[in-house]
């Protein structure tokens, strides 16, 4: 994996909290920031993926499928809502 340097300027309050959390997690601040950026990018990609998938769907068809889900079959153990 190619590595590069980037001078990151964070607000002091964000930097302080990132330091605290990375220490409590037992990871280097650099690794913590790398993981945070990776998680954000993943979330954005996931949102985009589902938005694209939803664009080609019909809500009525989806609701019809959901209305049939589990019909005639009791909930699995632990899945019932109780009273």
Protein model, in words:
The protein has a domain at 12-68. The chain has three helices and no strands. The protein has helices at 12-25, 29-55, 59-68. The chain starts with 11 loop residues before the first helix and ends in a 15-residue tail after the last helix. This is Toxin-antitoxin system HicB family antitoxin.
Roughly how much helix do the residues carry, as a percent range? Answer: 55-70%
The major β-sheet equals: none
Low-confidence stretches: none
Alpha-carbon distance between the termini? 54 Å
Order of helices and strands: HHH
Q: What is the CA-atom radius of gyration, in angstroms?
A: 22 Å
What fraction of residues sit in β-strands? under 5%
Shape: elongated
Backbone structural class:
mainly alpha
Number of helices: 3
Total beta-strand segments: 0
Q: Give the averaged pLDDT, no decimals.
A: 92
Q: Main traits of this protein?
A:
Ribbon_hlx_hlx; single chain; 83 residues; Toxin-antitoxin system HicB family antitoxin; mainly alpha
Provide a concise account of the structure shown.
The protein has 83 residues and is mainly α.
Topology:
Blueprint lengths: L11 H14 L3 H27 L3 H10 L15
Helix pairs in contact: 1-2
Protein name: Toxin-antitoxin system HicB family antitoxin
InterPro entries: Ribbon_hlx_hlx
GO biological process, one term: regulation of DNA-templated transcription
